């Protein structure tokens, strides 16, 4: 066993808050309760982001070392594990992106978040609800999916369930152990309910790029609010009004939050790539030339502060950034501070400024974040 490190403060454990000391190497070895004096740092589980397109000027679809760059940027903001998220694109471009990130999925680079696998956001979506996705949609085919999955581990697929044949694909993906989210969809409430019955388990950026809630046509949003156990949403305070966020939090037991971040995250205003699109960062957001929101510049530490700012208590906000996405992915040794879990830690001061991050016990340098 490597040398044990220790950190003391107010620790959020699965049983609640503990004042004391956490001892760890690559994994958490002990949490000991005892009284401390003076201002105490807050120690939370590292964040798990299931929807990350980019950061630090790098976009997943660029290939090369782009995923290393973005995973280092987000790690410095408290994200200790993530799913690298692809865009709708021609098959050859998706293959190239997956080939580039396959090695990062196997071995975590120093200073970087753990890449748990891939979120395939498209191309199996509805071209009538592209949002910021390029128009390279196609019908889902298991043969194509299997080709992708042989290159890099695909953990999550976004799909439009109303497209003919997609309900059977959802069932087949579930049988392969893949999570399926409904998104970029013109589907009805009934389409959403049918997809959940076929094995879909979540909703991609709830409220965005899907049919909305109307009292006579509940839409895909209505299916989520009425029936979902899990769904993701983007708490950047641009994509969704806080009132809609509260409605979703009240309705969906294990709702969790994502950044849907682009290459512009952690970067100054200007133009960046999002798949084959050029997007512009300004006024705290990222948009296409026509004004369409195109992902975000959000980081998970800011997501935590945003959730607290709209009224969530700190433990609840933390769970929606760590424990809930871990449970969604079926990853039980991350997203919580307990013995034998990975030492993925975030440390905050009294003003919720991030002061330290550990990924699998590795202390990161935050000075250039």
UniProtKB/TrEMBL annotation:
Lineage: Bacteria, Pseudomonadati, Pseudomonadota, Betaproteobacteria, Neisseriales
GO molecular function, one term: N-acetylglucosamine-6-phosphate deacetylase activity
UniProt-recorded name of the protein: N-acetylglucosamine 6-phosphate deacetylase
Domain Amidohydrolase-related stretches: 42-362
The family this protein is said to belong to: Belongs to the metallo-dependent hydrolases superfamily. NagA family.
Record carries keyword Metal-binding: yes
Co-factor requirement: a divalent metal cation
Binding annotation for substrate: 132, 208-209, 216, 239, 293-295
Catalytic residues as annotated in Swiss-Prot or TrEMBL: 260
One Gene Ontology term from the biological process aspect of the record: N-acetylglucosamine catabolic process
